[in-house]
Design goal:
With 417 residues, this protein is of the alpha/beta class. It contains 11 helices and 15 strands. The chain binds NADP nicotinamide-adenine-dinucleotide phosphate. The site of NADP nicotinamide-adenine-dinucleotide phosphate has 26 residues, from β8, β9, β12, β14 and α10.
Length: 417
């Protein structure tokens, strides 16, 4: 089955534009910078990609795991890939070469390669590419761009103070009789209506679930999202986010096209006594709300481990869910708020709070029942890793050994944008 390919033949790595949700994970993960994107598609440079597979496990949709056997001289260029709405079919190879490359090789290539690749402890990933051992098995990709699910809006309200610039909404979607099984930590894609500047349908935007697996309302087939209305780009220039504005403006009983669910690693442990350290900024609090609510609904069982939350926002009034969060019992969750623009206080980031709580963080890190989740701004990723490392090193311990174990055992997870 896996005869070596003739030198003229390339197993070309491609990204399926129909499934890709443009989350940028592959581009960030690729150790050789072979992946790039324009306003439309994510593409792989055939001259750079070495088939290392580092990008495959973190991809939430599997769109990254596509391969075509092509003549090297006819490899699909970046320009061709940028123009695709869908992947091209298999092109037959010349007969003399096809012998060395079995006809079903291309179809078999992704999964075969995925099994062979030593990806679980790939050093380029800050977090794990496997879930915790006791995580429930997730469903992924049940609904696609071609066959989305329809959900109905049953709630849409603001969860930050009205007079602040952070317009963050809690949006509840109900699936009625349509099966849409999810787990905390997973995300969904929303298809905004309309077309982009090129006249193509908008691609899906990804949002983490803010509700637990048994529904925003326990026992109902609904889920919630935390969505910030985007009104400026990363440089601070005015820009209207297509999907965030669409979602924030939805009214009750409006319908929404949904794809997914996505995600098979950023999942919570299920065993008794499992501790969660949750580190988030802004709307990155969505999965933390889902996990916390899962634990809250199980308090009576007495099987919960410890919950420790580090939550960063500009001000208290811009911190989503501030009111409900502060009502949670102190012996249920250890809350550490890091406010960066509160007039009366010095600037605080989540990593500052992690250092301040070093002794407690260290105790949790030392416990094999602890899983750590980081979600929010891309910029916090390096800072949080550094803070965790400092906590460990200052206690005279070896961070690289612990970091490696946390990744290998599916106990350290990042979801940052
Ligand atoms: P934000 O309000 O811009 O920032 C939240 C806090 O993080 C602020 O206090 C900010 O401080 C601070 N911060 C900035 N850079 C930091 C760094 N390097 N390290 C630590 N803290 C830092 O946040 P947001 O607009 O809500 O953004 C949240 C992010 O989560 C977005 O990137 C979003 O894409 C992502 N996300 C969202 C979802 C979802 O489902 N909605 C899911 C996953 C991830 P300053 O005062 O310095 O700005």
């Amino acid at each position: 089955m896996n005869a070596p390919l003739p030198p003229e033949v390339l197993k070309q790595h491609l990204i399926d534009p129909e499934i890709c949700i443009r989350c940028n994970t592959c581009e960030e993960t690729c150790p050789v910078d072979a992946i790039t994107h324009d306003g439309t598609n994510y593409v792989v440079d055939p001259g750079i990609c070495n088939g290392c597979m580092a990008c495959v496990p973190p991809c939430p949709t599997g769109s990254i795991d596509n391969w075509r056997l092509v003549l090297r001289s006819e490899a699909y260029s970046l320009q061709e890939q940028f123009g695709w709405d869908e992947l091209p079919g298999e092109k037959p190879l010349p007969e003399n070469l096809a012998d060395g490359a079995p006809a079903d090789d291309a179809a078999a290539a992704p999964s075969t390669a995925a099994v062979e690749a030593p990806v679980a402890s790939a050093p380029s990933l800050p977090g794990a590419s496997v879930p915790p051992w006791s995580a429930a098995h997730p469903y992924v990709n049940l609904y696609t761009h071609k066959a989305p699910a329809t959900a109905t809006v049953v709630g849409n309200y603001r969860v930050t103070d009205e007079d602040t610039g952070s317009d963050i909404h809690h949006i509840v979607l109900d699936f009625g009789n349509v099966p849409f099984p999810v787990l905390e930590g997973q995300s969904i894609g929303i298809l905004p209506p309309g077309t982009d500047a090129q006249g193509r349908p908008h691609h899906a935007r990804q949002y983490s679930l803010a509700s637990p697996r048994d529904g925003e309302r326990a026992g109902y087939n609904n889920l919630s999202l935390t969505v910030k209305r985007v009104t400026e780009d990363h440089q601070g220039r005015p820009a209207r986010g297509v999907c965030s504005n669409y979602l924030c403006d939805l009214a009750k009983n409006d319908t929404v096209q949904v794809i997914g669910p996505f995600g098979n690693t950023f999942l919570m442990p299920n065993h008794a006594g499992a501790n969660l350290v949750m580190i988030c900024t802004g709307t990155g609090s969505a999965p933390m709300r889902a996990m916390t609510e899962r634990y809250r609904r199980r308090i009576a069982r007495g099987t919960n481990g410890r919950l420790m939350l580090f939550f960063g926002a500009r001000t208290q009034r811009e911190l989503p869910y501030f009111g409900p969060l502060m009502k949670l019992p102190r012996d249920f969750i250890d809350i550490n708020l890091a406010l960066s623009r509160e007039a009366s206080q010095p600037r605080r980031y989540v990593q500052d709070m992690i250092r301040e709580r070093a002794a407690d963080v260290l105790a949790l890190l030392a416990d094999a029942n602890t899983c750590i989740y980081v979600c929010g701004l891309k910029g916090m990723e390096a800072g949080v890793l550094e803070a965790l490392r400092d906590v460990v090193v200052q206690a005279g311990q070896d961070w690289s050994i612990l970091h490696d174990a946390l990744r290998r055992e599916g106990r350290l997870h990042f979801e940052t944008y």
